[in-house]
Design brief:
five-stranded mixed sheet; alpha/beta
Length: 73
């Protein structure tokens, strides 16, 4: 799964838009039946550091154990 963080805090999970408020619940639902809770976070070059960190915090709060960062441009 890939969580994209765009400008102004826009989020997309596997290219499907998701709000910051619903991200935790969405991730818990997606990972409910999966033993490996791996997520890749891809920050757009226009995304702020704070928005990327907030997305990672939401993922960790939803039970994601491993977070990979995609730093490609």
């Amino acid at each position: 799964l890939v969580l994209e963080v765009g400008p102004a805090g826009a989020l997309a999970l596997n290219r499907q838009p998701v709000t910051a408020a619903s991200l935790g619940a969405r991730l818990r639902a997606v990972y409910a039946g999966r033993p490996d809770k791996v997520l890749v976070v891809r920050g757009d070059e226009r995304a702020t550091y704070a928005d990327v960190v907030a997305a990672i915090d939401s993922a960790r709060g939803a039970g994601v154990k491993v977070v990979g960062l995609d730093a490609r441009r």
